[in-house]
């Protein structure tokens, strides 16, 4: 039997974990700017910061040392409702902030053998009617990354096209498939690999992208996020690239990514 909330026509949420065990590949930047692009299109978007470094939270103007309620509560406490931890951060945009305590959470979850599916349950139970949920993950393959992969329907893997890119993607895919097949999210799928920080003048980057497209033709997205220094500047102005410089190559690319993700 469908629940009454379903019968009332609650919006169908699409959730994406943005993950790659490497740091500095544009995960947080993608969550921020893809989220902004979707929100500007009129979608209701929720961002969840699961990185103890909490750069997404900082980019959005909050202090990760002062968050009483944060994603920590979602991964550490049973039946913590999303509505208790999220904060509006813009039109159509809400954030579950990260906090520095997440580092402790990662250790406690393992040491105390606590369940890793609390975030999954919180998202499933939520009837808040978000169209998109984007989960930012730490630059490592730890239990917080696993929690995000358990909670999301799909994974987006941002990749910087350098020497170890393909190997890194393989390792990430292995983890995704392990979570899907053995850990409790059987319908998890890879929505796409997206090249980020892409320097079109660098022949090597072009070769690596071609390799990825040959190796994983279905998974590698058409959209390429260019290297664009304005993208790095925008959060320091308290903005996404979409509102900072809407016609910049970076803004155009993130709008294109938002469109591509909505194609069947
Ligand atoms: N397309 C881009 N062009 C230029 N700088 C970028 C781009 N994407 C990310 N950056 C910058 O690169 C650094 C790492 O990006 P970030 O999103 O924090 O990576 P991750 O979350 O994977 O560690 C940040 O300083 C960010 O501003
Ligand atoms: Mg990050």
Task: Characterise the protein shown here.
This protein has helices at residues 4-7, 27-40, 55-59, 71-76, 102-111, 118-125, 143-151, 165-183, 203-215, 229-233, 241-244, 249-262, and strands at residues 14-18, 45-49, 87-90, 93-96, 132-136, 154-160, 189-198, 220-226. With 264 residues, it is of the alpha/beta class. It has a single domain, classed as Rossmann fold (3-Layer(aba) Sandwich), CATH 3.40.50. It has an eight-stranded mixed β-sheet with strand order 3-4-2-5-1-6-7-8, with helices on both faces. α8 links the parallel β6 and β7. It starts with a helix and ends with a helix. The model is unreliable at 1-10 (pLDDT under 50). The structure holds adenosine-5'-diphosphate and magnesium ion (MG). The site of magnesium ion has 4 residues, from α2.
What's the total helix number? Answer: 12
Shape field: globular
Question: End-to-end distance, in Å?
Answer: 28 Å
Q: Report the helical percentage.
A: 40-55%
| SSE pattern | HEHEHHEEHHEHEHEHEHHH
CATH topology annotation: Rossmann fold
List low-confidence stretches: 1-10
- Return the CATH class: Alpha Beta
How does CATH name the architecture?
3-Layer(aba) Sandwich
Query: Main sheet, how many strands, which sense, barrel?
Result: 8 strands, mixed
Q: What is the CATH superfamily classification? A: P-loop containing nucleotide triphosphate hydrolases
